[in-house]
Specification:
Oligomer: heterodimer
Largest sheet of chain B: 2 strands, antiparallel
CATH class of the largest domain in chain B: Mainly Alpha
Largest interface: A-B, 25 and 24 residues
CATH superfamily of chain A: Response regulator
Distance between the termini of chain B: 17 Å
Structural class of chain A: alpha/beta
Helix content of chain A: 25-40%
CATH class of chain A: Alpha Beta
Radius of gyration of chain B: 20 Å
Distance between the termini of chain A: 27 Å
CATH superfamily of the largest domain in chain B: Homeodomain-like
Radius of gyration of chain A: 14 Å
CATH architecture of chain A: 3-Layer(aba) Sandwich
Structural class of chain B: mainly alpha
Helix content of chain B: 55-70%
Number of domains of chain A: 1
CATH architecture of the largest domain in chain B: Orthogonal Bundle
Largest sheet of chain A: 6 strands, parallel
Shape of chain B: globular
Strand order of the largest sheet of chain B: 1-2
Strand order of the largest sheet of chain A: 2-1-3-4-5-6
Number of helices of chain B: 9
CATH topology of the largest domain in chain B: Arc Repressor Mutant, subunit A
Chain lengths: 148, 187
């Protein structure tokens, strides 16, 4: 068994959502280390620090103050050091416009915030599994698009 | 000017390997499943220089213990999905015959180290191949379904939607827009 830790980051301005997410991820059978950020700017400041261990996967809320999820996504994809990071959008919005716009700007996964804890756990686990498969298998990262 | 290329992953890798191995003046043969046989072997120095030059292309020489059973299972699955003649063979029979372990053993080793089952991995891999064919070829969904051994287009579409959350046509639409978007982000 590979016991390598998966580094996960979540940027979400809602404190309850951050707490629920962190509880959900704790109870999944995949070993993770979660870093939490209150808004997009805080996340971007962290990602551009020198010599940090980059997360394997970033969950981005769309509606955040100071810097929203879409802006972060664009900045990450434009930065040569960060552009290969796997990004999951984590939003209450299920508008086709948001889904399409984030995919066009390089999101890999679009996850609608589920309305109960059990579903949240199942969805987060699914995202981690997919991300794991893309890290460890010969799957085509150019077509890494999932909506959950 | 911007243009697009289509490539055969397998052929590209094998050609690359050949070019690099030819430089060493040794007799070798390339097997399937990423296997390279070298008559007489390589010296430590040769091996290191080969490893360095291949690393640039994302090709890594695996050490004995690193070639885990899981990777061999994945390679065998790729081989099975690619080869039209193998379509009628049952996956479990194929894997246990090729890898010389019982399917029960393979299946438990696989699940233990990948967070998924062989069956689910095959579905993910098939959908991945379908995605590739949708993006890089002019094949219709019917042809793709046939090529990937689905019983019908409906079966392919259903599995595609269930796995990715997108229908094949919306995936295709997003990908073609994405290509335009990447070429010219302003529009």
């Amino acid at each position: 068994m590979d016991t390598q830790l998966l580094n996960i980051a979540l940027a979400d301005d809602d404190e309850d959502d951050r707490m629920l997410f962190s509880e959900a991820i704790d109870e999944i059978g995949i070993r993770t280390k979660l870093s939490l950020f209150k808004h997009g700017q805080e996340l971007m400041d962290y990602l551009t620090l020198p010599n940090i261990v980059l997360p394997n996967l970033i969950f981005l809320d769309l509606n955040m103050p100071i810097k929203n999820g879409l802006q972060c996504l664009k900045e990450i994809r434009e930065n040569p050091d960060l552009k290969d990071l796997c990004i999951a959008i984590y939003s209450t919005s299920s508008s086709e416009k948001d889904v399409e716009e984030t995919f066009l700007n390089g999101a890999n996964i679009y996850l609608n915030k589920p309305n109960n804890f059990v579903k949240l756990q199942a969805s987060v686990e699914r995202v981690l599994q997919l991300n794991w498969q893309y890290h460890t298998s010969n799957l085509n990262k150019d077509t890494f698009l999932f909506r959950i | 000017m911007t243009f697009f290329v289509k490539y055969d992953f397998d052929l590209a890798c094998k050609t690359l390997l050949r070019e690099h191995l030819d430089a060493f003046d040794v007799s070798y043969s390339l097997g399937s499943l990423g296997e390279v046989k070298i008559k007489g072997g390589l010296s430590e120095e040769q091996r290191n220089s080969l490893a360095t030059s291949l690393k640039r292309y994302g090709i890594e020489i695996l050490d004995g213990q690193k070639i885990t059973l899981v990777e061999r299972i994945k390679n065998a699955i790729d081989e099975l999905l690619k080869d039209k003649d193998l379509k009628s063979i049952k996956v479990s029979t194929y894997l246990s015959d090729t890898l010389h372990y019982s399917y029960a053993h393979l299946s438990s080793v696989f699940s233990e180290s990948t967070y998924t089952s062989i069956e689910n991995y095959i579905i993910l891999r098939k959908v991945d191949l379908a995605k590739e064919l949708i993006c890089n070829t002019d094949l219709t969904l019917t042809e793709i379904a046939f090529r990937l051994n689905y019983s019908s287009v409906a079966h392919l579409s259903g599995q595609f939607k269930k796995t990715t959350g997108l229908t094949p046509s919306s995936f295709q639409r997003i990908m073609s827009k994405k290509i335009k978007h990447t070429v010219n982000p302003k529009t």
